[in-house]
Amino acid sequence: MTPGRMKKIFISDIHLGDERSFAPHYPYGWIRSNISNLANFLEEQLNNPDVAEIVILGDLFDTWVIPTNLDPLASFVNICGNQANSPIIEALKKLAGKGILSYVPGNHDMAFSGADLAEAKQFMASVFPGIRYSCDPDLPVGVYRSGKIVAEHGNRYCLFNAPDTWTNQPSFLPLGYFISRLVAYKVSKTGTNEDFHDILKIFIQQYWESQNFIRDIFIAVAANATLNTDDPINMTGTSGFPPTVGDIGTFYEGLIENWGQNHPDISWRSAALNDGLGDLSQAAIKAYFSTLGSDQNIIIFGHTHRAVLKSDILEPAPGGPDKLVDLPCPAIYANCGTWVDSVESTYVETQEDADTGRHHVRLWTYPDKTLRGEAFVEL
Question: Which residues face 102 on adjacent strands?
Answer without folding.
Answer: 55, 132
